[in-house]
Design brief:
Blueprint (H helix, E strand, L loop, with lengths): L2 E2 L1 H11 L3 E5 L3 H14 L3 E5 L1 H6 L2 H14 L4 E8 L2 H9 L4 E4 L6 H17 L3 E5 L16 H11 L3 E3 L17 H10 L4 E3 L7 H10 L2 E6 L1 H17 L6 H6 L2 H14 L3
This protein binds zinc ion.
The site of zinc ion has 5 residues, from loops.
């Protein structure tokens, strides 16, 4: 059994100077590909159920599904709820097998964020589950604007709520289709000096490979949430399978065509975050 919490995988990553990938999962086939990549690379990973996936597949199904994969795997795997915005969503995830939750209070005032994050931490820790929080605001490509994380606010949120990991906004942006995010290393260093827990970069699809590697090996950033890059790979693989093999009609055969390309890109991404 190798189900793990963020503490189990991010603390060794911080001391060892490497990064852990938070894979945004959207179904069974991509989850299988990510676990296969983790086992091949002999490295821990995080399988994340974000809001879109939770709308598509209830946590009653996705929780046991991801947990099954984690328990069978030869490496530690964290089953993580991404971007929950209320305690109830976190409790539902924990009740259905998730070993970690992110409570996203980034749209709240600092005091509300601290109070609500602390309640999530209290419930989660009682169940052996880790909690990631967010302060500042990581915006969306062609959507809501980002708000840079303030080091003093990050210090208060992490220490007063007792968080295990903190998502920061330092030039990263969700849903970027090309790797051109401009990371503010000075602000990141100031945050790192104020916060004891490992840091998380959301929107890492938009962070160039060299910068990801620098952040993983030289800074306190230990977890990189990546979705768009893998969704692009899945879409491309699916499209070429349908165009190139017109005799294909079986859903399982079609979807299985995406597994090798996804596993390959996942392995490459994991490798880049290691020294
Ligand atoms: Zn995010």
């Amino acid at each position: 059994m190798s189900i793990a919490s963020l503490n189990d995988v991010l603390k060794p990553a911080k001391t060892g100077g490497y990064g852990v990938v938070g894979f945004v999962v959207l179904g069974w086939e991509d989850a299988l590909s990510y676990v296969a990549a983790a086992e091949k690379m002999q490295t821990p990973i995080v399988l994340q159920a974000g809001p879109g996936f939770r709308r598509h597949m209830p946590v009653e199904i996705s929780g046991p599904m991801l947990r099954y994969l984690a328990e069978k795997a030869s490496v530690p795997i964290v089953c993580h709820i991404d971007h929950a915005t209320c305690l109830e969503e976190c409790i539902a995830g924990i009740d259905h097998g998730f070993s970690s939750v992110m409570f996203d209070g980034s749209r709240l005032t600092l005091n509300e964020n601290i109070a609500k994050s602390a309640r999530v931490v209290e419930h989660a820790h009682r169940n052996g589950v880790s909690v990631e929080g967010e302060i500042g605001f990581v915006g969306y490509d062609s959507g809501e604007k980002s708000k840079m994380t303030m080091p003093a606010e990050a210090a208060r949120l992490t220490s007063e709520a007792g968080l295990d990991a903190l998502a920061v906004s330092v030039g990263n942006l969700h849903l970027q289709k090309t790797g051109n995010a401009d990371i503010n290393l000075r602000r990141l260093a100031e945050i790192e000096a104020s916060v004891a827990c490992p840091l998380v970069i959301h929107g890492a699809s938009g962070v160039p490979d060299e910068m990801r590697r620098h952040l993983a090996t030289r800074t306190g950033v230990c977890k990189f949430n990546i979705g768009t890059e893998f969704r692009q790979c899945f879409g491309k693989a699916l499209r070429s399978a349908l165009e190139d093999e017109i005799e294909l009609f079986d859903r399982i055969d079609i979807l299985n065509k995406t597994r090798r390309p996804l596993q390959e890109i996942a392995e490459k991404t994991i490798k880049n975050l290691r020294p």
